[in-house]
Design goal:
Layout: H1 2-27, E1 33-37, H2 44-60, E2 64-68, H3 75-82, E3 90-95, H4 96-105, E4 117-133, H5 141-150, E5 153-157, H6 163-175, E6 179-183, H7 187-195, E7 201-205, H8 206-214, E8 218-223, E9 249-257, H9 262-276, H10 279-287, E10 291-292, H11 297-318
Parallel strand pairs: 1-2, 1-3, 5-6
Antiparallel strand pairs: 3-9, 4-7, 4-8, 4-9, 4-10
Helix pairs in contact: 1-9, 2-9, 2-10, 4-11, 6-11
Length: 323
C-alpha cells in the first residue's frame, strides 16, 4: 500500500510538471531578458543582437536588453552565462568563434560548449569576402594561386586567430597556396596597409570591406558563402571556382545555459524566428549583407556540429593557438 501511494504521488507530481510547463511558457517572460554579446560594441554581432532584440521585445511585451561583455575571445561572457540560472532570462549570442573555433584553439576552457549550453536558434550569417589590393594582377582564385607560386603573397588580418586569419587559413588549405600571414592590432591598421599596397590580400565580413570594393580600391575575388552575395552579384563563390563544399561566414545564434525548460526554449525559438522573418529585420540585415535564418534548436545544433568539424580541421592543420 505504501509503495502504491509513493508511485501515485510521483505520477501526480510528473503530471503537475507536464501541465505547469506550457503554462510557464504562456506567461514567459514576466521580466526583462538579458542578451549578452561577448564582444565590444560596434560590430556585426551588436547590430544583429540589437535588431533582433528590439523586435522580440515588441512581440513578447518585455525588454530584451543587449549587454556587451567583451574579453578573452568571448570566453569571459560564455563562462558567466554557462553558470546562470537556466530560466530563459539570461541568454548569449553564440558565434562561430565561441562555439566552433575556441574549443580547438584554447588548450582548456572553463566550460563545455556542447554540454553547458542549449541551442535556441541560428539568427543570421554574414558572408566572408576575400579581397586583394586593386593594383594586384589578381582577378580570381586561379590568379591568386599563380601569383603565390611566383612570389611571396602577404595577407593581413586583425590579429592572430581573428576571423580574417581563420578564413584565409581555411582558404589556404583548400587552394593549396603558400600565403603568408601578417597579424595587426585591429582592423583599421590592417586595412590601411592593404589599401596602401603594403600587404596583398585580406578577408573579412562583407560590411567591413564593401565601401572599399565599391570605390575600386580593393578587388573582391571570391565570397565564402555557398551562394553569391546580393551586394556583390558578380563575385564568384569559392565553391564556384573549383572548390566544392567550401563555406565560411560569420554566423550568430541564440543560445542559453543548459537546462532551460523545453517549453521556454520553444517560446524563445518561435519569437526569434518571427523576429528574423519580419520585414524590418530583413531590411536591416540586407543593408549589412547579412542573411536571416531563424531555425529550430535541432537544426542549429546540427549546424554547430558541422562547423566544429570544419574549424577543428582548420585550427589544427594551421597550428593556430590562442595568444
Amino acid at each position: 500500500m505504501k509503495q502504491l501511494v509513493t508511485r501515485l504521488a510521483a505520477t501526480l507530481a510528473a503530471c503537475a510538471i507536464a501541465i505547469a510547463l506550457p503554462v510557464v511558457a504562456q506567461t514567459f517572460p514576466t521580466k526583462p531578458i538579458r542578451l549578452v554579446v561577448p564582444f565590444a560594441p560596434g560590430g556585426s554581432s551588436e547590430i544583429i543582437a540589437r535588431t533582433v532584440a528590439l523586435k522580440m521585445s515588441e512581440s513578447m511585451g518585455q525588454q530584451v536588453i543587449v549587454d556587451n561583455k567583451p574579453g578573452g575571445a568571448g570566453n569571459i561572457a560564455m563562462q558567466e552565462v554557462a553558470r546562470a540560472a537556466p530560466d530563459g532570462y539570461t541568454l548569449i549570442l553564440g558565434h562561430i568563434g565561441t562555439l566552433a573555433v575556441n574549443p580547438y584553439m584554447f588548450a582548456k576552457l572553463p566550460y563545455d560548449v556542447n554540454k553547458d549550453f542549449i541551442p535556441i536558434s541560428l539568427l543570421a550569417k554574414v558572408p566572408t569576402v576575400y579581397v586583394v589590393n586593386a593594383d594586384l594582377p589578381v582577378k580570381d582564385l586561379k590568379d591568386l594561386v599563380t601569383l603565390a607560386r611566383q612570389r611571396e603573397v602577404f595577407y593581413g588580418s586583425a590579429g592572430n586567430a581573428s576571423a580574417g586569419h581563420l578564413a584565409t587559413e581555411y582558404l589556404k588549405l583548400s587552394i593549396k597556396a603558400p600565403l603568408t600571414h601578417v597579424p595587426y592590432k585591429g582592423t583599421g591598421p590592417q586595412l590601411q596597409d592593404l589599401l596602401g599596397g603594403r600587404t596583398d590580400a585580406s578577408a573579412a565580413g562583407v560590411p567591413a570591406l564593401l565601401q572599399h570594393i565599391k570605390s575600386g580600391k580593393l578587388r573582391a575575388i571570391a565570397v565564402g558563402n555557398p551562394q553569391r552575395v546580393p551586394t556583390l552579384p558578380d563575385v564568384q563563390t569559392v565553391a564556384e571556382q573549383g572548390y566544392p563544399g567550401f563555406e565560411t561566414s560569420q554566423w550568430y545564434g541564440l543560445i542559453g545555459p543548459a537546462g532551460i525548460p523545453e517549453a521556454i526554449v520553444k517560446r524563445l525559438t518561435d519569437e526569434a524566428a518571427k523576429a528574423v522573418r519580419s520585414k524590418e529585420v530583413q531590411e536591416k540585415f540586407a543593408a549589412d549583407s547579412a542573411t536571416g535564418v531563424g531555425d529550430t534548436p535541432a537544426e542549429f545544433a546540427a549546424f554547430i556540429k558541422v562547423e566544429q568539424a570544419r574549424w577543428e580541421r582548420v585550427v589544427k592543420s594551421a597550428g593556430i593557438k590562442a595568444d
